[in-house]
TrEMBL record:
It is an enzyme of class 2 (transferase). Residues 2-70 form the Malonyl-CoA:ACP transacylase (MAT) domain. This is [acyl-carrier-protein] S-malonyltransferase. It catalyses: holo-[ACP] + malonyl-CoA = malonyl-[ACP] + CoA. One of its GO terms (biological process) is fatty acid biosynthetic process. InterPro entries: Ac_transferase_dom_sf (IPR001227), Acyl_transferase_dom (IPR014043), Acyl_Trfase/lysoPLipase (IPR016035), Mal-CoA-ACP_Trans/PKS_FabD (IPR050858). Keywords: Acyltransferase, Hydrolase, Transferase. It comes from the Eukaryota. The keyword 4Fe-4S does not apply. One of its GO terms (molecular function) is [acyl-carrier-protein] S-malonyltransferase activity. It comes from Cinara cedri. The keyword Metal-binding does not apply. Its EC number is 2.3.1.39.
Length: 78
């Protein structure tokens, strides 16, 4: 199995929110990143504003956390 994850520019407000709400394994990923960063990146991802989400220091880890959450949910389902 091969996974290809997106890069900067693919971010949008609300990405990954349905995974967060539906799968505890995804919620764990978001919560862990918030804890490691010592800030609520998940709030920016889920609620914006888009101008804040597109700043590189937010966009890069946001895309990473959503990608890892997708991977964890896929592993859980399979």
């Amino acid at each position: 199995m091969i996974f290809v994850f997106p890069g900067q520019g693919s971010q949008y407000v609300g990405m990954g929110k349905s995974l967060y709400n539906e799968f505890s394994v995804a919620k764990q990923v978001f919560d862990e990143v918030d804890s490691v960063l010592n800030r609520k990146l998940s709030n920016i991802i889920f609620n914006g504003p888009i101008e804040e989400l597109t700043i590189t220091e937010n966009a890069q880890p946001a895309i990473m956390v959503v990608s890892i959450a997708i991977l964890r949910v896929t592993e859980y389902i399979l």
